[in-house]
Amino acid sequence: MTQDQTTSQDAAPETPAPWRPSRTVAVVLAGGTGTRLGLGIPKQLLKIAGKPIIEHTLAVFEHAPEIDEIVVLMATGHVAEAQQIVDKAGFRKVTKVIEGGDTRNATTRIALDAVGEGDVNILFHDAVRPLVSGRIVRECVNALWTYSAVDVAIPSADTIVQVDDDDCITDIPVRSSLRRGQTPQAFRSGTIREAYRRAAGDPDFAATDDCGVVLRYLPGTPIKVIDGSDENIKVTHPVDVHLADKLFQLAAAQVPRLTDHRSYSDEVAGRTIVVFGGSYGIGHDLTELARRHGAQVFPFSRSTTGTHVERPEDVEAALKTAFEATGRIDHVVVTAGILEKGKLAEVDQETIDRVLQVNFVGPVTVARQALPYLQHTKGQLLLYTSSSYTRGRADYALYSSSKAALVNLTQALADEWAEVGVRVNCINPERTATPMRTKAFGAEPEHTLLAAETVAQASLDVLISDLTGQVIDVRRAPGEGAPAAVPVQADRSASAATAG
Fold first, then answer.
1. Interval 350-393: pLDDT, tens
2. What would the pLDDT profile of 127-174 be if each residue is shown by its tens digit?
3. Of 25, 216, 361, 391, which alpha carbon lies 20 to 30 A from 172's?
């Protein structure tokens, strides 16, 4: 619909009819080829946080109640791959997955044809902005009740300079009036159609931005700008891949908790959970918590059941016990670990072998043995790293490095197992009050330690979530403390409970 209606001088201006769209369509633009990333596949198919980028993006619109339909414009030659992602994820709102054009304006024209005639809200969004929020989508759609074109932007934190052909500054615009554009860009269908109709008569027309087309060819049309977010980044360069992955990790740290005991019981009751390292510390507290909510939990450890996670036969027997008792295994948790202090050059070979076997070979062994059970239930493997994984620390290099390896293992398995529906995540607690930590460091001030119960609660939240490939940070809330001293067990079995 055109925005510049003309009237005779004698006639009173007509009051525009209220906007009554028949539906709201999200058009996901996935035509990029990944050239700047140096990839052999389109960047929207690259996996971040265990899923292809485009799957993360589509999920936002799939779950947004304001969106009725999704149309995907995919890079030439990759439509089948995109369709497979849609089918596997079960996205019900996606009605079309079609090839985009050679240029941005050609792609928009194809999208408009795919949407069809009639009064419709249309949101155009870059497929490689997977961190767009539901809030942004909602505000874009709401703004269309008042405005016929809507953009998303954030303030510029940097000074912007304008240069000439010799790279010399010609102007420095006032930063307070500048914004950095994002997507989605939202339109009443008549407005964007009319803008492109007029642009078709311009031989120099080349669109890179749909709001820019409206601004140029329908200059009297107000374009409302709503606030975007710093997290809504576009994955364009290699560094963006790492930034996006880290942002997903930070988002995962805010795993929503359910509201009450009944809600947890509804989610957990009847599930079978196997906990390796379930006799002390975090593993013990998770066992007790899950049981209170109705789960059937089977804890195994060296001290209570003689189970060594690094021994395939022990792990096989443990899993078989749980399966034969309940007929299913929904979650497998590995909290078992050893923390031995000492300079690497001074540590004996026996200690090196023991630490590496328990801390790394153990989780690998459990993962291999657990997959057939988890594949049947579409369950989850949950591992535990340490806050030291980001930077190895003197005097416990083996512990730090083996825990860092679990982060990589988590991400790799989440990728490998996505096709069979098994999720893999890793909990990263800060320093936690556990028997293992007390044994290694002695009594510490309570305000400096995270309570094992807090880590157990976060672990349960992750188990009932749909996260995969995530490293979930667990931190103390302001003012939270934990017992300063945790009794040290008489034998070495205390080290089977992991510490943050």
1. 999 999 999 999 999 999 999 999 999 999 999 998 877 777 77
2. 999 999 999 999 999 999 999 999 999 999 889 999 999 999 999 999
3. 216
**Residue 493 CB partners (closer than 8 Å, separation 6+):** 279, 280, 301, 302, 303, 304
- Specify which of 222-236, 397-411, 419-433 reaches the highest per-range mean pLDDT: 222-236
φ, ψ at 442 (rounded to 5°): 75, -170
Q: What is the pTM of this model?
A: 0.68
Q: Which residues of 318-327 are buried (b: 16+ CB within 10 A; e: fewer)?
A: bbeebbeeee
Contact 488, 439 (CB under 8 A): yes
Residue closest to 361 by CA, chosen among 338, 381, 392 = 338
- Strands 169-171, 162-163: pairing is antiparallel
Domain 23-233: give its CATH code: 3.90.550.10
Task: Give CA–CA dist 140/222, Å, rounded.
Answer: 14
Encoded tokens for 266: 């509804």
**Higher local confidence (pLDDT), 434 or 186:** 186
Q: Quick one: 253-496 is in which CATH superfamily?
A: NAD(P)-binding Rossmann-like Domain (3.40.50.720)
**Tokens representing residue 324 in the block:** 């034969």
The answer to whether 73 and 107 have CB atoms below 8 angstroms apart is yes
Where in the chain are the domains? Answer: 23-233, 253-496
Pairing mode, strands 47-48 and 51-52: antiparallel
Phi, psi (degrees; rounded to nearest 5) at 285: -65, -35
